[in-house]
Amino acid sequence: MLMHPQFDPVAIAIGPVSIHWYGLMYLLAFVLFIVLGRTHAKRRPELGWDARAIDDLLLYGVLGVIIGGRLGEVLFFNPGYYLSNPLEIFAIWRGGMSFHGGFLGVLVAMALYAHKHGRSFWAVTDFIAPLVPTGLAAGRIGNFINGELWGRPVTSELPWAMVFPWVDALPRHPSQLYQALGEGLLLFVILWLYAAKPRPLKAVSAVFLVGYGSLRFIAEFFRTPDPGIFGTLSLGLSTAQWLCVPMIVVGIWLWLRVRGEAPFSRV
């Protein structure tokens, strides 16, 4: 059995200025997006992306992630707390970002980008889908450093079970690391390999929806559910699991619709 290291959430402090690990994880996610985006553009030049376009994509994506992710956390998961502490809404360096809110925020941001630059919305989402999971992994590592979103108590002895002492003395699943490996590393490998070859328009986005939805759905069985505005819903599933269901359904529907179509090429 392991003990959570109880990291100092502040990575660097210079006078009154503090840089938090959670913020550094977001910075790492954005850097990885740029590096992987440029690599993906070079291996798939027929898609018509260049460094400048990827930089613009990142700007739109950052706004979508931060605004959508925070609003999702505030509205779907902790409305009572933030209603009582409204200034805490802006303290994003302390954690508290909803994936599903951020996902919706990014979709809106990508729709705005596609409209402004005359690109297909699905061409944009197909391009960014393989670039997202490494950012998700970085975010989950940030959750682990912050000691938030801990796992459910372990019913049998596991050598990697971990105690989060500010919660209780029970050994728990380090679910943040499960998610970093699942919806982060594993999903990245799947999408990176799948997107390496020409695919029909919407196919890569479909694989992302099914892949993330399925992996997150499974991970929730090991994670202490967020209370959410709905709490634990029917069939004993968490709010996050039910939010994953439409992702999986839409992803399967999209993939079935486009399979067999000609690969997409912008040029």
What does this structure look like?
By secondary structure, the protein is mainly alpha-helical. The protein has one domain (2-199). Helices cover 58% and strands 6% of the residues. The strands form two sheets. Strands 1-4-5 form a three-stranded mixed beta sheet, with no helix packed on it. Strands 2-3 form a two-stranded antiparallel ribbon. β2 (10-14) and β3 form a beta hairpin. α1 crosses α2 (51-77), α1 runs antiparallel to α6 (133-146) and α8 (203-219) packs antiparallel against α9. The radius of gyration is 19 Å and the shape is globular.
- Number of extended strands: 5
Shape: globular
Strand content: 5-15%
The number of helical elements comes to 9
Helix content: 55-70%
Provide the structure class.
mainly alpha
Rg over CA atoms: 19 Å
Could you give a short account of the major beta sheet?
Answer: 3 strands, mixed
Cα distance, first to last residue? 55 Å
Strand order of the largest sheet: 1-4-5
Mean pLDDT: 90
| Uncertain ranges | none
Order of helices and strands: EEEHHHHHHEEHHH
Whole-number count of domains: 1
GO molecular function: phosphatidylglycerol-prolipoprotein diacylglyceryl transferase activity
Family: Belongs to the Lgt family.
Binding site for a 1,2-diacyl-sn-glycero-3-phospho-(1'-sn-glycerol): 140
Keywords: Cell membrane, Membrane, Transferase, Transmembrane, Transmembrane helix
